[in-house]
Here is the input.
Amino acid sequence: MMCSTLDGSVDMMSVHVMDEDVGRDDLIGRCEVPLSALVATAGDRNPTPYKLYDANDVISGTLMIRCESFAAGAVITALQANTQAAPPPPSKQADESKAKAAADAKAEADAKQLATITAAARAQAKARSDAAEAAEADAHAAARKQDDSRVDAAENEKKAKSAAAEKAQASALEAKANANRARTKTIGKLTVFVVSGKNLKDMDTIGKQDPYLVLQAGRLPEVKGAVMTDGGTNPAFNQRFTFDLPNSDELNDGKLRINVFDEDVGKDDHIGSGDITFVELIRAGAAGLAVPIYQSGSNLSNKTKTGDILLRCESFVDGAAGLDAIAAQKQAEADAANRAKATADASFASTLNAAQSAAADRQSAKAKSEADRKQREQLETEQLIASGVANAKSNAAPASAQVPTTGVGSDILPIGQLKLTVLSGKGLKDMDSIGKQDPYLVLKCGGGQELKGAVITDGGVNPTFNQTFSLYVSLALSLDRSIALSLSGTRSLVFC
Here is the structure.
């Protein structure tokens, strides 16, 4: 079947490598093969490697293709076959000799014309090869530049985050310093008077126990009171404790811790402990209140009460900032942390947006470069073939001697038969997770026609094809003077 297109891209042949699978076959990779390049290497026993690209344009292996032969001169053969006249009578030997000389001259002219087209095709193949090498070099340079840009972007992001962290830390320190300058060293002086203990647990089996107090304001050092000898279970402490409350985390959320011990020979026994906030103590004032104490080591769910301690706030001298200083300091530190986080988030978002924009620009540039390449190839093909076909038409035989046409309003001028062999595939992408894949070839010619090769069962990633295909290359001239290559192909004895 003849394949003919007029879209200017017919010089290219597409080779697809597929993996036969249950249901739907998978595309391993594809490559575009210029026919002019194959013609230029006709007879060379060394195959040409072509890189395969998968559906995401990522290299997926290499295909080894060799041009076995290019049988040129189909135009000449057709014209000679149609211009041969019947054997002349013996009386017209002079006319026969003259006709033979004209036919030889015509054949020589056609041969020169074909040689010109072939030379131009080889020149075009070399130019495309040079352009491909230059494009590959540009691509490598662009990739290196892109890698450098990524490194710079990462370094800039790192510097931005470091600068944001340093700025946030400086802001936090400044806020803390400002808060410290706005208040005195302490938030106030607290004086606590412990009146007595009530119903304390008796730790002694003989005689009366000797209780004493240990008080701690936040994380400040503990303060021990006097031992109440024979104080028993209801000792009268009547002891005064004074604390300078600092404006810092040492307040431990502003609690007064009360521990009651029984002095004993060897190790003192812990009667119990309890706590009360400074706010509750100050609000109670001189009226006082009872603080329950519990046995140390008891779990919250089953703790045992071991008595009460009666105490009151004798006085509280408020500092410059008072109890509100703690809340103000914590709020300032939280605000500084929030500002630091917002700065870091903004820096990261800016870096991310820049990276995404750069990726979009690279994709757009790649698409434009591909479109420009296809346009250049189309123009080159049209110019090359137009010059050769113009000569072929001017020297062609009369209409009655034309080769049969295909399609409406077009003339077909065969220029040769191209035979190529796909030898093997190397390093193909493995599409099967279990076992070896079964690759096969599909050659796509102009006009959407396809040539399918035999399936290589268990061919794997390095299959040996050794399959030969025949392509009939021709020039097509349509009524509107558009020029294109036409292809027809065969594999073995099956015409596609």
Remarks:
- The first strand starts at residue 2 and ends at 4.
- The two ends are 5 Å apart (CA to CA).
- The mean pLDDT is 78.
- The chain has two domains: 2-153+360-495, 187-320.
